[in-house]
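Incident log, support desk, overnight shift.

02:14 A customer reports that sequence design results differ from what the structure should imply. Their input is reproduced verbatim below. On-call engineer (initials T.W.) acknowledged and began investigating.
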């Protein structure tokens, strides 16, 4: 007789134990508050830099140079100085808090080194991007925001293409899946789905995080599936199959392309809002910069943080939709509902499995583990083994 899906789901979640559930709840709820504090920190950083007049001075100093050089230098100075100002907060939110909850074992020195590398890389790429945006403002007139959304789409495509090849290997080591029965099982799944087997990697995710996780990324020739060594070591053969089936689902269903489409649409909306709202926010921060002046960059980026926060529920709904599709793909192609469920329960350590419906709608970029395990158990009940 098939067990009741609701009872089976509850048994999976309860299997975590009361202490683990309480810790997951505290960690997850605290993480939601971090979103608000992040915005506050970005507002304070923006205000301090505007009040110091730092970027006005940099702009004046480079006044004899071309506008492209000027906006690039202003961008670099802004991204680096804001990262320095926000460093105590980054250490607290991204390292200390993670360590306290045993989500990471990364030494502070390694965190700081990788954080520094990320900041440098972000500063160069961010400054290049905004130099492009300021050039479009100068050259394309009142429709600059449409052109800037186009630039965002081009940059996002380039980043998606290059990230697995150039950027991610700077932070982690990606290796082909080691030979053995697990690899053989993955090759069968990948071949059936038309995914080249050499596009599946194991990476040392344990360097930064104890999270049980895997992801599908890249586009075109760089498209790949990567499984963290935490998941690789902590999963049974069936769990690896179920999780890989989920990631192959993302790959086969073209979710990266879909995300790219969404970035493009959001960019049109974002730059339109900048065009209309910049003057108001400049006054709020007591700055004098005009929209076309690179010294107004902190205000533009604060508006980006605000739009990011307000857009979170929309992006999350979009993410949850794709995750449900990938779970369904795994169930339909791999057909291991219990292995999928037990693997999902391991992600409940960092995503509280029983949020309220409202909390899930606003904050969860994946459906709750309860909902996902519930779907696996429904699937199991509908597909009895004979
Ligand atoms: Zn997924």
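02:41 Re-run completed on a clean worker. Output:
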């Amino acid at each position: 007789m098939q067990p009741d899906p609701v009872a089976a789901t509850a048994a999976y979640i309860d299997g975590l134990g009361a202490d683990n559930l309480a810790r997951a709840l505290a960690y997850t709820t605290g993480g939601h508050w971090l979103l608000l504090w992040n915005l506050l920190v970005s507002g304070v950083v923006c205000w301090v830099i505007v009040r110091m007049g730092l970027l006005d001075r940099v702009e004046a100093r480079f006044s004899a140079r071309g506008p492209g050089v000027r906006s690039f230098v202003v961008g670099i100075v802004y991204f680096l100085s804001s990262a320095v100002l926000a460093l105590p907060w980054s250490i607290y939110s991204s390292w200390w808090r993670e360590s306290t909850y045993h989500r990471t074992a990364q030494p502070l020195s390694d965190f700081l080194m990788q954080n520094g590398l990320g900041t440098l890389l972000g500063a160069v790429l961010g400054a290049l991007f905004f130099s492009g945006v300021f050039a479009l403002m100068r050259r394309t007139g009142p429709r600059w925001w449409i052109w800037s959304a186009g630039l965002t789409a081009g940059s996002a495509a380039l980043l998606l293409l290059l990230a697995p090849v150039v950027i991610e290997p700077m932070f982690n080591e990606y290796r082909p899946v080691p030979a053995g029965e697990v690899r053989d099982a993955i090759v069968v799944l990948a071949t059936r789905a038309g995914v080249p087997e050499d596009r599946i990697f194991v990476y040392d995710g344990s360097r930064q995080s104890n999270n049980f996780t895997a992801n599908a990324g890249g586009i075109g020739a760089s498209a790949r599936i990567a499984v963290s060594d935490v998941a690789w070591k902590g999963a049974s053969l069936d769990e690896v199959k179920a999780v890989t089936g989920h990631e192959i689902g993302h790959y086969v269903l073209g979710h990266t392309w879909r995300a790219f489409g969404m970035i493009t649409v959001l960019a049109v909306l974002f730059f339109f809002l900048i065009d209309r709202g910049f003057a108001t926010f400049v006054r709020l921060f007591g700055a004098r910069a005009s929209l076309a002046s690179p010294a107004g960059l902190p205000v533009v980026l604060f508006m980006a943080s605000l739009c990011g926060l307000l857009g979170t529920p929309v992006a999350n709904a979009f993410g949850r939709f794709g995750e449900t599709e990938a779970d369904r793909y795994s169930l339909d192609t791999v057909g291991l509902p219990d292995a999928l469920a037990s693997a999902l329960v391991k992600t409940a350590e960092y995503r509280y499995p029983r949020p309220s419906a409202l909390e899930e709608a606003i904050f969860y970029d994946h459906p709750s583990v309860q909902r996902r395990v519930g779907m696996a158990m429904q699937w199991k009940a509908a597909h009895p083994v004979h």
